[in-house]
Design goal:
Layout: E1 10-12, H1 29-40, E2 48-50, H2 56-59, H3 65-73, H4 78-84, H5 90-113, E3 115-118, H6 139-149, E4 156-160, H7 167-172, E5 179-186, E6 199-203, H8 209-227, E7 231-235, H9 253-269, E8 273-277, H10 286-304
Parallel strand pairs: 1-2, 1-3, 3-8, 4-5, 4-7, 5-6, 7-8
Helix pairs in contact: 1-10, 5-6, 8-9, 9-10
The structure holds zinc ion.
Amino acid sequence: MPSPNARVPIVWHPAYEVEIGPHVFPTQKYRLVRERLVAEGTVAAAELVEAQPATDEEVGLVHDPAYLRKITTGTLSLLEQQVLEVPFTPALRGAAWLSAGGSTRAARLAMERGVAVHLGGGFHHAFPDHGEGFCLINDVAIAIRVLAREGIVQRVAVVDLDVHHGNGTAAIFRDDPSVFTFSMHQENNYPAVKPPSDLDVNLKDATGDSAYLQLLERHLSDLLSRHQPELVFYLAGADAYRFDQLGGLGLSIEGLKRRDQVVFERALGAGAGVAVCLAGGYAHQTDDTVEIHCNTVRAARDAAARPFTPRGALQP
Ligand SMILES: [Zn+2]
């Protein structure tokens, strides 16, 4: 249980910064976020936890053997690479396996400490048999399956507040009542086809802070009391920002900060641990994306300083 001065465990890896050429996806954001948090003292460099890659067997808890074979042997078809929308390289594969291991580590730490942040992950567009939209494999789904197999969690909620619908995650857990998938996203945006989550909140273009926060508070409280998760996996996408190149919502940096606070307050208040991953963020100014992600970590730090009674502790 965290003491008042507890720091939030932060998981990351330098290899997340993959070279993908000129691209809207700023993979340098992972390094920039870490550097800013260390420079300001929110995170001590010595306390950073380096992610270890997931094993192939762990990745296989979510993904089909045929798809994994194609990734391992570098034989994705041209169409599969086009749908992925990032160049497929061994470095991308390495970063994806590290991201899955990093989200798994963050989930374990969240169950031990209340809150943990993965400065990476959130690749929610990956399906069991294919990747798309910058997402090769679904790190969050893999982490959930690994912890569930070990009996560490029985009930999990995925709170996906990236501006894009969590299509891959919704499909993976469609028939799994132990995992509640919640996606709040811009309706008129990628992906065109949105397989149903357990709860989808489709937002109109340019939805602003106040309407967004009202909907979030209502739906989050409702799902926490109905599903009673031990763990909330929070995808804190920075792309719900009003100046995002791939987003069309109207949230301000202040509004996004409040969004993060709402998730931590409500989830911890309901006795759930919170594992955070960064997910998307493509602001015109990369500095804005970095600041939004840093705010999420600052909110996590503040939330971790408060007493937390895990739901598991209340049960025999
Ligand atoms: Zn996104």
